[in-house]
Amino acid sequence: MMASDISGIPETLAPRPSPLNIPELLHRIFYFFDDFELTRHVLPVCRLWFLLNQHLIAREAHFDEAQPPEELERVLLGLPWATRLCWSGGVIKRATRTQQRRYRRQMTAILKDKYDDFMDNRFLKFRPVTGNGKVVGSHQYIGEGGFYTYGSGGLDGLIQGSKAPLRELLVYGNIVYEARVIPLLPFLSTLRRLELRIESSYLDLAALLTEAPSLEVLVIQGNTSLIGDLGSKHFKRHRGDQPLLLRSIIFEEVRYPQASVEIMVAMTPHLRELVLCAITLSNFSWSGSVAQNVPLQLLDHIQSLSLPLEKFHISPRGETMTAEFLSRQLEICPLKDEFFTYDLTASIVQVLQQLPNFITTLEIAAAAQCGLDDTLHNYLCSSPHLLHLRAPKMEYQVNRMDFHRRLADTNITKFGRYPALGQPQVWACSNLQTLHLKIYSLSEGASWGPNFNEQGRVMFGYISRVTPRLRDLYLNLPQYLASCHTPPRLCLKSGLCLLTRLTRLERLRVAGDLTRQVEVPEDIEWMLQSGHSLDMRERRRVIVAGWDAQIEEEARKPDIQQVELQQQQEDAKRQQQQEPPVISSELAEQLQNLGRLVDVKEMIEEMDSKEGFPYWSELRRVSLFSDSEFGFSIERECQKELARLALASTETNP
Questions:
Q1: Which are the contacts of 6, defined by CB distance < 8 A and separation ≥ 6?
Q2: Tell me: the pLDDT tens digits for 527-558?
Q3: What's the CA angle centered on 404, arms 398 and 407, to 5 degrees?
Q4: pLDDT in tens, 592-644
Q5: Nearest to 235 by CA among 196, 214, 209
Q6: Any idea what the Cα angle at residue 211 is, between residues 208 and 216, rounded to 5°?
Q7: Rounded distance, CA 376 to CA 380, Å?
Q8: Cys-Cys crosslink for 402: which of 61, 327, 385, 410, Cβ 3.0 to 4.6 Å?
């Protein structure tokens, strides 16, 4: 008798096992999802997926010192349940010094309580679950609260009832390490990720690694004059031969002893990412003898360790990266789909061009002035596979986006200061998801140059058309983008609303030297769901109606680019050659009104013609009127600026 006959279920109807019911396999798949994707697309699917991934979601507490005191107190109330603490210290602080000191004491006390709670509850009861997510009745014990363990029988169980310890700490901005972070070290033993982008005269790395032995990711960037030696007797006595758990080390613009670098990489056998960007190395080797060539000696030492590196970069401070030195690094860690560099010089691009063009992520750390250098622009125009570009300090000419050369300073030959920009090109990376750039203008705020509204329409229009799949956009706008060094203002005419074409946008940040304050509420009300009432739409229509004269004037101006294209076509006919198209016909049609005010008018009319708020449905974090590293919701960001406008109006008209 068949087994199906015994159970009474026909064999053809018996359920087949599915790979999507194997917890170990699902865990490996979901590891590649970020918090947003897990929360939005994974957790709601079924009970099993929810149980598997709820512990992976980072519960974030965002302590931004630019917030008012009542907001900071609300953040502290939620800190006991947070697994990620984002601490941002800007130049502008709403709380008084007395309040700031009280908040820091409260933060320290809360983290101490979290740590004590974790130490007291390291062995917690849990209820095992089967592959289909059903909870069974037996009880066992595991060694770490808040996480799953895996055994030969599949998913061992679901943790019950404890506050998860702090796993990530990100500290950015105007914060001094010695006064703010050091008091927290005794309570950070559960940290797995630590990012410090702050100022410090001395950072004791040995003490940090001793207090946080579970670190897997360590990032230290900016204005750290010296990182302490790892060769101290105390560190060796405490660690012994026990390896570090670090998988990622990123140091940028720090001074670090050569011996400590070698000790650190020797103690990290699982290291997959090592980035030492613009660092100053001492000229002493591991054995203490003077080295003739410190960077090359360090490369030899790292190569001898045979680390499983997937991302590797070393650039000594003040030295230009040569093609030979880059080639030597590629021998240690062959280039895959990510490339990190301090500066993108012609020699580096030449090395990259000799390799297959499959780079999907490009990171540039240098705070470089572009001048008329078009290296980055040409690379973007020849890299169709690029998905992520992070170069927040490298200047890029907004004039390169001016495809029709409608800005006053793009046709620079008539001023006699610069050579012509040459044949315009469009970025080939149309699938770009991440874009971080510092925008530069040829006019440098000169009185004869274009104002920010004109440049904004070119910049926002170009990005929204050429890279419509963006998810993370960060534009660093310097002060001189506006004529005569007046601060850039994000008004309706500047074309920020053109970014609503980016329907997948999750993070939007527009930063710069000055706060981009608006002048009237109509400039920002369109960003809010409440800003699309009939009354507010009518007020925007009145403003847009006042643009008719300027729109007609722009339509009468001949495009310099069109004249040049006609000349090229005539030359091609005379030479009986067919010039290749600059861009596709579809994109050319979309860019037809690039830089013109009519482009903004049509966008506003399209927004106001639709019911509800259909765009920016994925947008989570916004920094427009505050230079926050992490950002706020769009409602909070805009309401804050509207409150400033209301206060200014009251003071002007009491």
A1: none
A2: 988 888 888 889 999 999 999 888 888 887 76
A3: 50
A4: 889 899 999 999 998 888 766 678 888 888 988 877 778 888 888 888 888 88
A5: 209
A6: 75
A7: 6
A8: 410
For residues 468 and 499, what is the distance between their CA atoms, to the nearest angstrom?
Answer: 9
- Two tokens, residue 504: 């997948």
Cα dihedral angle (430, 433, 436, 440), rounded to 10 degrees? 20
Q: Which residue's entry shows tokens 């800005």?
A: 407
Query: How many degrees, rounded to 5, is the angle at CA 217 between CA 341 and CA 228?
Result: 85
Q: What is the radius of gyration, based on Cα positions, of the chain?
A: 28
Instruction: Retrieve residue 70's tokens.
Output: 């009542």
611 CB-side CA count, 13 A: 0
Query: How many residues appear in the chain?
Result: 654
Q: At CA 575, angle to CA 571 and CA 577, rounded to 5?
A: 95
Cα first-last separation, the chain: 94
Residue appearing with tokens 């990266």: 321
pTM over 0.85? The answer is: no
Q: Are strands 158-159 and 168-176 parallel, antiparallel or unpaired?
A: unpaired
Alpha-carbon distances of 35 from 113, 145, 433, rounded to whole Å: 26, 20, 17
**CA 455 to chain CA mean position, Å:** 24
- DSSP H or E segment with residue 237: helix 233-239
Distance, in Å, from the CA atom of 436 to the CA atom of 400, rounded to the nearest integer, reads 16
CA dihedral 140, 141, 144, 145 (to 10 degrees): 70
* Cα 462 → chain centroid: 20
Strands (E), 369-506: 388-397, 434-440, 472-477
